Amino acid sequence: MLESARSRLKAWTVAGIGTAAAIAVAGVLGAFGARHEPLPVLAPASPIDTGEWLLRPLKAYVTVEKYAYGTLLKPGGKALVLEVEMTNRTAKSTKDYFDVLQASPATVDPATKPFIVLTRDSTMSPELHPGMPERMAYIWQLPDGAAAPASFNLTVIRKTYKPRDNLYGLPGWFNPTPAGTLTIPVGAGPDSPDIQP
Amino acid sequence: MRKSANLVLMLVAAVLCYGLQISKPHYGELIGPIPARGKLGDTVVGRAFEVHAEKVEFARKLTVDQFGQQRVLTTGGVWAVVTVEIAARSESTTIGVASWRGPTGLTYDQTERLSFMNGLLPVAIDPGLPRKARLIFEVRPDEASDATLLVSEKLVAALDSQAEIALGPVAVAADGLPAGTVDMLDMAQPL
Amino acid sequence: MTAEALDQENRAGERKWRRRSLWSLILLVPLALAVESYDSVKALLGNNDLFPRRVVWGESAQFGGSDWKLTDLRGAFGMSNLPPDSVPVLADFQVKVGNPDLQKLWLGCKIMLIDKDGRRWSPTSIISLKTPDNVGNCISAIFSGAKSGDTVNLRETFLVPKEATKSIRPAVSVASERPHFLLFHLEKD
């Protein structure tokens, strides 16, 4: 009886050590560390690196004109315009800038998608090329009857680069996560000065 | 003797399998485009089309005609305009995609700022009737020399021809722009 | 039976079955290939025009549920602004609609010109010539609501090199008849 007890003890010990080792490895790899940390607050004056894009917010203002950089706005409504200098830091021309900046729901209706225009010649959402900084304007239509805010919050979304994705084995940028928030003061009109670094 | 021979065989098999695993081409390479290579001035023959790059011009600004009005297009880098002649080989088809790959591997797609103009891609080609087209790119001045022009019919040229035309070295002038950069190129000029 | 004799018998049986299995591979491997590629072959035949059905110019042929007749094939000379050495060619067809379900039968309708080397030309968008009101192209005919017994006039314009004008022949293909297609030719071809 002692024999079987000893072999059983050996079996239990091995199983126990194995389970403990598995849990320890999982813990080291971060399974238990997924706490919600607060998003870092970014300074609007310094460049923001999201991996894909290098962003430098320049100025923000509210316009009541009919057109902003060639985009037709709702008559009688107000639009929030954010001018930002963007540099494509990937190796290929891309227009993956539709989700990079998200205006806070307190200022803009979350369902409103911004118009994104190249300010150089008012082209709507062109591809931006690697290593070439361009001044873009994000134009959000403000809800009807909303007052022009003095400042508004932006969330910057970051994506990670995978050299081989899981479906085709081709490189791409995936898994959007918030990288930080910033508060931008809103000027009176298009003539407000750029934010200085 | 038997045991050591078995061990050696197992090690050889392990090394062989590891080698096979390391060298397996990835799905992206297996379904990628099939390159047809050539130089500036050569006629590069693909499966369904042939393309002949005639000349490359650089400019600081472009003049275009939009709805009867003249407009000037500026850039933060330099405009590269490649004049090509394309023809279909056996069936009518369209050439839709062209990119400029710089010497460091950065790939610049055709500019989308002139979408209202004629003579740009996509171009419909018929067998026996070559057509000229202008491929217009906005590139960094340091990506202008030793670049490769990539031309294909469809955006994802999976297992189909993609012409890779080496555009050759371009000297750099004192201001950092390619030698021979003109101040203005008129896109309204006939091809 | 001795153990040795049983052993011999078993081995002989094994050898017989091994030989039979190897021979059956000759049947099974092609069968497996055929089953695996069945879908691909079906797609290949359904998307390509491979087998011409020859029709003499002037006669009509049943195709896609209707009767097709080539009425005219001529070049349009004297136009300006054309690429060098090219000729616009017009192909006119008269179709007597049989089965009016054109949206299904004529889906993927393609009219092309084929020359003796097998080069194919699709209708051109570079030039457009004035057409009379009752003449349309294949796509507009599909949605014209033609009924059984109606006659539909079709015209397609092509741009071909001058040297190909002698040997080009019009061809019509529809998805419901692929891989077969109609090829109109002169009697002397």
Features:
heterotrimer; A: 197 residues; mainly beta; six-stranded antiparallel sheet; three-stranded antiparallel sheet; 11 strands; elongated; B: 191 residues; Immunoglobulin-like; five-stranded mixed sheet; 2 helices
Structure description:
The complex is a heterotrimer of chains A (197), B (191) and C (189). By secondary structure, chain A is mostly beta strands. Helix content of chain A is 14%, strand content 36%. Chain A contains 1 helix and 11 strands. In chain B, strands 2, 3, 4, 5, 10 and 13 form a 6-stranded mixed sheet that branches. Chain C is α+β, with helices and mostly antiparallel strands and 189 residues long. Helices cover 29% and strands 33% of the residues of chain C. In chain C, a hairpin with a 5-residue loop joins strand 5 (110-114) and strand 6. At the A-B interface, loops of A face helix 2 and strand 8 of B.
Task: Give a quick summary of the entry.
The complex is a heterotrimer of chains A (197), B (191) and C (189). With 197 residues, chain A is mainly beta. Chain A is built from 1 helix and 11 strands.
List the helices and strands and how they pair.
The complex is a heterotrimer of chains A (197), B (191) and C (189).
Chain A: H1 2-28, E1 48-49, E2 53-63, E3 67-68, E4 71-72, E5 79-88, E6 101-103, E7 115-118, E8 123-124, E9 134-141, E10 151-162, E11 172-185
Antiparallel strand pairs in A: 1-2, 2-5, 3-4, 5-9, 6-10, 7-8, 7-9, 10-11
Chain B: H1 2-23, H2 27-30, E1 34-39, E2 43-45, E3 49-66, E4 69-73, E5 78-88, E6 93-95, E7 97-101, E8 107-109, E9 123-125, E10 131-139, E11 148-152, E12 161-166, E13 182-186
Chain C: H1 3-47, E1 51-56, E2 60-63, E3 66-75, E4 86-96, H2 102-105, E5 110-114, E6 120-121, E7 135-136, H3 138-142, E8 151-161, E9 169-173, E10 180-185
Parallel strand pairs in C: 1-10, 7-8
Antiparallel strand pairs in C: 2-3, 3-4, 4-8, 5-6, 5-9, 9-10
